[in-house]
Write a structure and sequence with these properties.
single chain
Length: 112
Amino acid sequence: MNTVLEVIAAIFILLGAVLAFTAAVGIVRFPDTLSRMHAATKPQVVGLVLVLTGAVIELRGNVDIWMLVLVGVFTLVTAPVIAHTVGRVAYREQRGRDGLLIVNEMEPDESE
């Protein structure tokens, strides 16, 4: 049974590492901030959760598991907030590609 759990933990850790690697490649290769923001949040968070899941399976019975759970929860809570903030700053600084966004919802209303 221990061997099966170790193999499952290794698979989770490897899948998480592959997702983190693809996020890093996306950050380097994508042309603008909004595209890089997507690569920095989605696969990176899922990759971290997979690595933490593999570590929890590997460390079963250890007291450090709760610290890993806290790291995962903190990441899941803060990643959307950070991505939203970065997206707003990039939008306001006009760092996006021209024509990427068709409707400007942040522009003040003409009637106000």
